[in-house]
Each structure stands twice: as structure tokens, then as C-alpha cells.
């Protein structure tokens, strides 16, 4: 099972603003968890990917709300969208200076789905060539072609059963400041 990490309140707010901006284009929709799960079933990737692997869906033109009950009707034309959002001033669609994080699962799904999986790079800042926020949609291949450098970063989530994991040698614990309130 994939570990879940929570985003800081600021990052989550930025992401929500990016999604709100993207949703002003009526081709995009935010779908609920049941619909995301049904899409993964239809894609045939339920064991490999989770509902967190994409943020929205896109159709070629406006469509009525997509639900778990009607997603099959839209599936042939549906594209999954993973957002990367910044408040930074990015000049234009070249996206020079756009720094983002992506998971290996996102890249795996993008490779598996090809052009049916898009990264939406959303720029919330209006200090750019267009004078307002904008977004650029790219496939994984296009992201790879534009990538200057890439690094691997591990995100670690400690176990909750600390004692079962071996505990800690008390000599390795350093308590700083006034230690009068610490039990011995």
C-alpha cells in the first residue's frame, strides 16, 4: 500500500487555487473518489495506482458531470490530469524556472496511459507574458523532453509501532533545554 503524506496547508491552498483555475475551462472536471476508482478499474490499473495519481479529468469538449455511473460513456475520450501548481512568476508556456515534485507512480501511470494522462502546469501568478494566470498541458514524453535535471528524493513516514521497530537506545536521545519536565 502506498504511504500517504499530507501537504502543508499552504501547498494544499495553492493546489486548490490551481484546480479552481483549471476548472474555469469547462473541459475539466473534478471527480469524486468513487468515480476515480471506477476510472482506474476501466484503465485496468487499480492494483498499481491510486486515486491520488490524478487530480481531475478532461474531455475534448464540455460534458455533463462525470460520475461513477456514467464514466463508461465518456471513457474513450477521457484524459486524466495531474496538476502541478506554482505561485512563482513564470514568463510563458516554455515554463522556464517551473520547479515541481512528482511521484514515481505519477510517471508510471503517465507512461502506461501515454497521451491519455496529462500534467497540467498551472501558474497562478499574473506577472507573465499573458498578464494573467495560465496553464500548460504536457504528456510525460513532453515533460521528459523539457526536463533539464531530475533528482530522487525519499519521503519517510515513521512507523506507529515504535517499540516493535526496535525502540531507541536512550543514550541516543538528546533532550535540549530545560529537562526538568521529562520523565526518567
Instruction: Please tell me the total number of domains.
Output: 1
Q: What is the total tally of β strands?
A: 5
Mean pLDDT: 86
Structural class: alpha+beta
Give the distance, in angstroms, between the N- and C-terminal Cα atoms: 37 Å
Shape: globular
**Largest β-sheet summary:** 5 strands, mixed
Helix content: 25-40%
Low-confidence parts, pLDDT < 50 over ≥5 residues? 1-5
- List the strand order in the largest sheet: 1-2-3-4-5
Any idea what the radius of gyration is?
21 Å
Beta strand % = 5-15%
Describe the protein:
It is a single chain. The chain is an alpha+beta fold. It has one domain (9-172). 25% of the residues lie in helices and 14% in strands. It is built from 5 helices and 5 strands. The protein has helices spanning 9-22, 33-43, 71-74, 104-113, 140-146; strands at 28-29, 56-58, 79-86, 117-123, 134-138. The protein has a 5-stranded mixed β-sheet. Strand 3, helix 4 (104-113) and strand 4 form a beta-alpha-beta unit. Mean pLDDT is 86; it is low at 1-5.
Amino acid at each position: 500500500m502506498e504511504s500517504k503524506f499530507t501537504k502543508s496547508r499552504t501547498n494544499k491552498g495553492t493546489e486548490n487555487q490551481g484546480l479552481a483555475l483549471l476548472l474555469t475551462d469547462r473541459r475539466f472536471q473534478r471527480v469524486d473518489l468513487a468515480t476515480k476508482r471506477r476510472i482506474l478499474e476501466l484503465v485496468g490499473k487499480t492494483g498499481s495506482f491510486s486515486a491520488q495519481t490524478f487530480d481531475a479529468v478532461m474531455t475534448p469538449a464540455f460534458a455533463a458531470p462525470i460520475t461513477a455511473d456514467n464514466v463508461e460513456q465518456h471513457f474513450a475520450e477521457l484524459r486524466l490530469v495531474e496538476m502541478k501548481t506554482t505561485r512563482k512568476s513564470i514568463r510563458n508556456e516554455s515554463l522556464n524556472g517551473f520547479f515541481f515534485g512528482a511521484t514515481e507512480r505519477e510517471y508510471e501511470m503517465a507512461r502506461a496511459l501515454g497521451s491519455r494522462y496529462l500534467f497540467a502546469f498551472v501558474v497562478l501568478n499574473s506577472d507573465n507574458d499573458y498578464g494573467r494566470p495560465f496553464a500548460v498541458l504536457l504528456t510525460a514524453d513532453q515533460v521528459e523532453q523539457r526536463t533539464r535535471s531530475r533528482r530522487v528524493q525519499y519521503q519517510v513516514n515513521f512507523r506507529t509501532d515504535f517499540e516493535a521497530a526496535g525502540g531507541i537506545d536512550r543514550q541516543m536521545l538528546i533532550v535540549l533545554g530545560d529537562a526538568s519536565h521529562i520523565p526518567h
